[in-house]
Design goal:
Distance between the termini of chain B: 63 Å
Radius of gyration of chain B: 27 Å
Number of helices of chain A: 5
Low-confidence stretches of chain A: none
Oligomer: heterodimer
Structural class of chain B: mainly alpha
Strand content of chain A: 15-25%
Structural class of chain A: alpha/beta
Number of strands of chain B: 0
Strand content of chain B: under 5%
Helix content of chain A: 25-40%
Mean pLDDT of chain B: 86
Number of helices of chain B: 6
Shape of chain A: elongated
Largest sheet of chain B: none
Distance between the termini of chain A: 66 Å
Number of strands of chain A: 7
Helix content of chain B: 55-70%
Largest interface: A-B, 16 and 15 residues
Chain lengths: 180, 141
């Protein structure tokens, strides 16, 4: 039996394994990696959603570990993650700064009133410019920022208890252990 | 019925422009604008450029490109602005750097490999001993 006969089969199996790994285990390539991980959070200075004369900016991020959550009233996923965010806001000790993205001020205020406000402050980014500076391309997105204002993690998609426990908590623990 | 068929000539009127921004006064800027838009990926509809996509993010990014061009930024500065915020994935054409060598060179490499295999197989076939006298006459090409 000429072993060379098996060469195409072997090659095919090798390719099948390679492609199989890519299709099943590899990360979702639709989620674009943020180039800000490990770098300082982008500079932003937005009017406060509720108090237009006040400003929400990088100053809100300094001094403690925090989350920046990009949301909008037209965003279905934001409605779905709202409960998880309320839970995090009430129980985790990590403050959440909201970034209201490409929305109407009145609609956003009404939405928070109706469903509850998990944010310590919300910046109003009407034209999406701050969003572009943060590399936002959809909602919801959530960034984890350490006490020095460095971006440590970005979630593209809906926050759930599972995601919080599996993706965010380990990083938060290690930040706390290292004296952040 | 025939008269209604002639309405087909009106069909092109239904064509919509994706980009409803005004044209630049300067044709050079307009050309650069169009070229840059073809180089940037729409992050929502990731198989389209921002020139082709009518997703919100594509619209916003086209506006951003437009403003930067009017502010006198160079093509490099505009691409740098985009990649520093969205990463290399936003460029439709991947950079040719060590981690993308496989991406760029694999198709050509596979073509070459296939070519060698083909040549090798054809050579072997031609070198096979001829048993059939009819085949011998045929192979004297």
């Amino acid at each position: 039996m000429n072993l060379r006969l098996f060469l195409p089969v072997v090659l095919f199996l090798g390719l099948a394994v390679f492609l199989g790994i890519g299709l099943t285990k590899a990360k979702d390539v639709r989620k674009v990696d943020s180039p800000f991980i490990g770098k300082p959070a982008p500079v932003f200075d937005l009017p406060d959603l509720n108090e237009p004369s006040a400003s929400v900016s990088n100053a809100n991020l300094k001094g403690q570990i925090s989350l920046v959550n990009v949301w909008a009233t037209w965003c279905v996923g934001c409605r779905q993650e709202h409960e998880a965010l309320m839970d995090i806001a009430a129980n985790s000790g990590i403050p959440i700064i909201g970034l209201n993205w490409k929305d109407s001020r009145a609609a956003a205020q009404a939405w928070l009133k109706r469903f509850g406000d998990p944010y310590v402050a919300t910046g109003f980014d009407e034209d999406g410019r701050a969003g572009i500076d943060w590399g936002v391309y959809g909602a919801p997105e959530t960034f984890l920022i350490d006490a020095d204002g460095i971006v440590r993690h970005k979630l593209i998609g809906i926050m759930t208890d599972e995601v919080w426990q599996e993706e965010f908590m380990p990083i938060i623990q290690s930040l706390k252990e290292n004296g952040s | 019925m025939k008269k209604i068929i002639w309405l087909i000539w009106l069909l092109p009127l239904v064509a919509f422009a994706i980009d409803d921004n005004a044209l630049f006064d300067d044709p050079v800027l307009q050309a650069r604008y169009e070229a840059i838009n073809e180089e940037l990926r729409c992050l929502q509809c990731q198989n389209q450029t921002i020139a082709d996509s009518n997703a919100t993010i594509a619209k916003d990014l086209r506006l951003q490109v437009r403003e930067m061009l009017l502010a006198g930024k160079s093509d490099e500065e505009i691409m740098e602005f985009m990649t520093s915020r969205y990463g290399d994935f936003v460029t439709y054409r991947p950079p040719f750097v060590p981690r993308t060598y496989v991406l760029w060179l694999a198709p050509a490499a596979m073509l070459l490999l296939g070519g060698f295999v083909m040549v090798s197989v054809v050579r072997k076939r031609s070198a096979l001993p001829i048993d059939d006298p009819d085949e011998e006459a045929e192979s004297a090409v």
